Structure formats: C-alpha cells, structure tokens
Amino acid sequence: MQRFLGKRVILVLVLCASIGTVVSSQGQSFTEPRYDLGASIGYWVSGDVYLGLPDDWYSKNGSFLFRTWFDGYLMPKLAAGVYVNLSSVNFDDFDTEATMYEFGVALKPRFLVSPEFAIKPGVNLGYRGASSDTAAAEFDAFGLNLSVELQYQPAPLAEYGMYVFADTGFLSQPAGGNEDQDITFPPIFYISIGAGI
Asked: 173: which residues sit within 8 A by CB, 6+ positions away?
C-alpha cells in the first residue's frame, strides 16, 4: 500500500514540476502574483472517524499527507484554483489500510503583510475517495477543508520567483461512505511545509 501511495505522489510531483517549468518561465511578482503553484508534505494528525459500525466511532492514526495546488488570481487579493490531496488511512482496530485521494476546487483570499510575507487562507471543496485491498475500506465522499498558507519569499528565492510556506488547516468529511456503511469525520487537523512559485 505504501508503495502504491508513493507512486501516486511521484506522479503528481512530476506533473507539478512540468507545469512549474512552463509557468515559472513567465516570471511574476510576489507582491502582485498572477498564479500560485505549490506542493507540500506534512502530517495529518489522528482523529475520530464515524464508520457506521456497531461501535460507530474509531480513532484514525496520524499519517503522511501530500498536497499540491494551482491557483489563478481573479483579482489582486483573491484566487480560485484546483488541488490534489494524497494520504493513507489506517486504524489500530482494523488490520487494513486505505490510500485516500482527493481533488477539488478552492477559493483563497491573500493578504500581503510585507513585501516578503503573505497570509493566504482558503476553503476547499472536493471529491474524496479511497482505494484498498479491502472493499469495506473503500469509499466515495465529499471533502470540506480549510487551509491557511503562511508564504515567505527571502531574497535568494526571489531571484527565481519561488517562495516557501507553512500550510495548516483541517480536512473534514461531512458525507460519504460505501454500500455497507457511512464513513464521515469532523475536522481533523494537519500541518505541512512546502515550496511554490
């Protein structure tokens, strides 16, 4: 399962690098961007998940989280874009693991604090699914997420039009499941770091 997740992460990274090469060749200003392309690696903390089984609630273990997105600016302080999330999901109570994937759309205002620092909160709505060797662990769902990027562009990175950032927020699943059970969960927090152009 980890090998399967790793292949997906590598594929998404190659895609991001390809898009980034084309986009970064155009150049842009950090204070007045036309787009943001970013990728981050982080940790999705443990949290309670409703599985619709006799005991209902089970605790998900903390896991690796990979995020990437492309945002285009509708106006100087507001961006809309698309994103992809990848993670693994497992429980101590079950001998099974699932690869969770999600893609969707986002709306993100951006506030410039200084010429080198910006804050970019966002609301993310997406389709979420999971693949597993066990059919009961697979699901289709609606993802509702909140993200907050803290972007920083030091002088050495400014020459290349790049910036680094910390990204925190939560993933939640208000609706979803499979033929046998509902699978939902309230906000579960994550934190990640990454780079963007």
From this structure: 128, 141, 142, 143, 144, 183, 184, 185
> What is the CATH class of 2-196?
mainly beta
Q: Which of 93, 94, 86, 95 is nearest to 63 (CA)?
A: 86
Assigned token pair, 86? 């990848």
Higher pLDDT, 141 or 180: 141
All residues at 6 or more sequence positions from 42 whose CB lies less than 8 Å from its CB, including other chains: 64, 65, 66, 67, 167, 190, 191, 192, 193, 194
Please name the residues in contact with 141: beta carbons below 8 A apart, sequence gap of 6 or more. Answer: 127, 128, 129, 173, 175, 176, 177, 183, 184
Which tokens hold the place of 128?
Answer: 């979420």
Quick one: pLDDT at residue 93?
Answer: 81
Percent of the chain scored above 70 by pLDDT? 85
CA dist 90 and 67 (Å) reads: 19
Residue 162: band (very low, low, confident or very high) from pLDDT cuts 50, 70, 90:
very high
- Stated length of the chain: 197
Query: Any idea where the domains of the chain sit in the sequence?
Result: 2-196
Mean pLDDT of 86-109: 92
Phi, psi of 144 (to 5 degrees): -125, 115
